[in-house]
Write a structure and sequence with these properties.
Layout lengths: L3 E3 L34 E6 L12 E5 L10 E10 L7 H8 L12 E3 L2 E3 L2 E2 L4 E2 L7 E4 L8 E4 L5 E8 L6 E5 L4 E6 L2 E8 L1 E4 L4 E7 L4 E8 L4 E8 L20 E2 L19 E8 L8 E2 L14 E3 L4 E8 L5 E5 L4 E3 L5 E2 L1 E4 L4 E7 L5 E6 L2 H5 L3 E6 L2
Parallel strand pairs: 4-11, 10-18, 15-19, 20-23, 22-30
Antiparallel strand pairs: 1-2, 2-3, 4-9, 5-6, 7-8, 11-16, 12-15, 12-17, 13-14, 13-16, 17-18, 20-21, 23-28, 24-27, 24-29, 25-26, 25-28, 29-30
């Protein structure tokens, strides 16, 4: 396995992506990663070998900023996950089941077929929400039947650092009876935005501040489109424990926090500059054949630079990602953060809806070979990956 330091723009030989920057670490061997964390924020790490991520091999990596003013009494790291390993199947078995494709099956009925789902749809995600059946969803490693608990005092302001470590599931996060003020996206500050829920795709991170009321409240990570949820408790005083299936008005609200609503804070906004290079990337493939790729090409680990996109150090790069598929994809770029067009947030992972296009800018200031891929682990593993490389 290898560790991939998700979101950190570290030096290329520490990025941990076989076969592009490193060979896999063999059993009973070790490798020392040495790098300077360049930016404060909420990050995480996970392997980049096969579908190991879906076996729970990950962790939070929080880079504190001593100059940050704070303005909150405590912070809670909240890791969301979809879980099946050792319960219904292994991730490798799921991949083997998906790989032949699902054919041309149609219909609106929500149903499980082996380890796959049919009819899991979401308007927020533009249709197909995901295709893997998970028997449980976790918050900080705990299932809904044994919920994680967060304790504080009424009136305290808490910074939530929310990480979606799932492999095939977007979550909508709410705290019953409370609003959330988004302060950071993928580690970088944004103009504060008050919402009732946050939609978070695989690999994304959002920080939000919440002012706690008095009582016991549900913290829900709704598995978007999959009719199930992760569940935890927030305790600030006495009160009855809400049921796992409790209805909360926040999930019915249209005040859903997404990247499209956010604007980068002034101190992290990229300076205005005409792009030196424009690159277009097409996300291609379908569930029918499970032929996920980039520009119609499935990533080949034996020829990792086939179809690579060239940039040069010092350039301002405009990257346009065109989702030509009928499914949403959380697109992730290694080694850099980009800014959404129109003054949007600084990010490294972004939801791109079906048949939609995302345009972002970044500065080519970190030489090396960097992968860009869908952060649905099953899509990435079957081919939706490419390389953006610097030429001297």
């Amino acid at each position: 396995m290898l560790d991939r330091w998700h979101g950190l723009a570290l030096r290329n030989d520490m990025d941990g992506v076989p076969p592009v920057t490193q060979q896999p670490i063999r059993p009973d061997e070790s490798f020392d990663y040495e790098f300077i964390a360049p930016d404060p924020g909420t990050y995480w790490f996970h392997p980049h070998v096969g579908v190991q991520l879906d076996r729970g091999l990950y962790g939070a990596l929080i880079v504190e900023d001593p100059a940050e003013p704070g303005g909150y009494d405590d912070e809670w790291v909240i890791i969301l996950d979809d879980w099946l390993d050792g319960v219904t199947a292994t991730p490798d078995e799921v991949l083997a089941e998906l790989a032949p494709g699902m054919g041309t099956m149609t219909g609106d009925m929500f149903m499980r077929m082996g380890n796959t789902l049919m009819g899991a749809t979401s308007d927020l995600l533009g249709g197909d929400a995901g295709d893997v059946y998970y028997p449980t969803y976790l918050i900080n490693g705990n299932p809904a039947g044994d919920p994680a608990q967060f304790t504080a005092s009424p009136g305290q302001r808490i910074r939530l650092r929310i990480i979606n470590a799932g492999s095939d599931t977007a979550f909508r996060v709410v705290v019953g009876g409370h609003t959330l003020t988004i302060t950071h996206a993928d580690g970088f500050p944004v103009t504060p935005s008050e919402v009732d829920s946050i939609l978070i795709g695989m690999g994304e991170r959002y920080d939000a501040v919440i002012t706690l009321a008095d009582g016991v409240f549900p913290l829900i990570a709704q598995a978007e489109g999959k009719r199930d949820r992760g569940f935890a408790l927030v305790r600030t005083g006495d009160g009855s424990v809400p049921a796992v299936d409790v209805s909360v008005s926040e999930l019915d609200s249209d005040r859903v926090g997404t990247a499209d609503l956010l604007r980068a804070a002034g101190e992290v906004t990229l300076p205005t500059r005409v792009p030196d290079r424009q690159i277009s990337i097409a996300l291609t493939g379908s569930m029918a054949a499970y032929d996920w790729g980039v520009d119609g090409r499935r990533f080949d680990a034996d020829q990792p630079l086939s179809g690579a996109h060239e940039i040069r150090e010092g350039e301002r790069v405009r990257l346009t990602i065109d989702n030509q598929t009928t499914m949403w994809h959380p697109f992730h770029l290694h080694g850099h953060t980009y800014q959404h067009e129109g003054g949007g947030p600084r990010k490294d992972t972004s939801i791109i809806l079906p048949k939609q296009t995302l345009t972002v800018d970044f500065d080519a200031d970190n030489p090396g070979l960097w992968v860009a891929h869908c952060h649905n682990i099953y899509h990435a593993e079957t081919g939706m990956t490419t390389v953006i490389g610097y030429r001297a």
